[in-house]
Amino acid sequence: MYSVIATDLDGTLLNSDHQLDPFTAETVRTLAARGVPIIIATGRHYRDVAGIRNVLGVDAYLITSNGARVHAPGDQRIYSRDLDPAAVRRLVQPDLAGSERVIVNLFADDAWLIDRHAPELLVFHQDSGFKYEVMDLREHDGENIAKVLYIGDPEDLKQTAANLEREFGDSLYVTYSLPDCLEVMTSDVSKGRALRFVLERLDIDTAQCVAFGDNMNDIDLLETAGHPFMMNNANPDLIKRLPNVPRIGYNFEAGVAHQLRKLFGIRDELASPGQTPD
């Protein structure tokens, strides 16, 4: 009934410190050792997720930049969708970003490019050690960019989103991964599309897929999987959008790991923080 697992990272598989806890890592390793394919589906950069996967210690498929990149176990890139270079060159302009407080980022194939120093962001990348490179993004040619990311106060990002809607309409895929992270990809990109690509490669039906998510960029992922689950800490807008998707525990209580142990019949030999073995 359950043959493959697809999971988001931040707010879902990772704890409140944006790291893997031992209980979650042990659970995923146990299932991978049983031969269950693991698919990580996230808005994060491929190099960042590869570092987290190495900490996790499993051979996983990596869906990154919200579906703009897919890598097979062994780090072979098997799927790629780039933004139009002309669109990228426009997206980094200050009038599109709106407030000067909004931080603009580009996800290139092997680099995270940013328009200013923002050391506070590095806390999100403790497991992988992934770091940004500062540059004047207006000098970038726009080639080979998977994602444009705006980081800022939610109120500032509302204006950014309105600017994008006014200028690009539905020609881009614009979504939130966190309330302070507005992400832009080409229109034919989503986690769900990338998930279908991986499942076809594995010859596994979507009805056999278990999926976990917590935010608006997980909508298509959860709609694609036959057995979707939403975190208790999910974005309220996601709950409204997908009211019939079951809610499980919180990410800071290893909710995904506990649900997986129930679904796959694993006894909780190792208790997570704040939990006792079943």
Automatic annotation (TrEMBL):
<dbReference type="InterPro" id="IPR006379">
    <property type="entry name" value="HAD-SF_hydro_IIB"/>
</dbReference>
<keyword id="KW-0378">Hydrolase</keyword>
<dbReference type="GO" id="GO:0046872">
    <property type="term" value="F:metal ion binding"/>
</dbReference>
<dbReference type="Pfam" id="PF08282">
    <property type="entry name" value="Hydrolase_3"/>
</dbReference>
<protein>
    <submittedName>
        <fullName>Cof-like hydrolase</fullName>
    </submittedName>
</protein>
<keyword id="KW-0479">Metal-binding</keyword>
<dbReference type="GO" id="GO:0016791">
    <property type="term" value="F:phosphatase activity"/>
</dbReference>
<keyword id="KW-0460">Magnesium</keyword>
<dbReference type="InterPro" id="IPR023214">
    <property type="entry name" value="HAD_sf"/>
</dbReference>
<dbReference type="InterPro" id="IPR000150">
    <property type="entry name" value="Cof"/>
</dbReference>
<dbReference type="InterPro" id="IPR036412">
    <property type="entry name" value="HAD-like_sf"/>
</dbReference>
<comment type="similarity">
    <text>Belongs to the HAD-like hydrolase superfamily. Cof family.</text>
</comment>
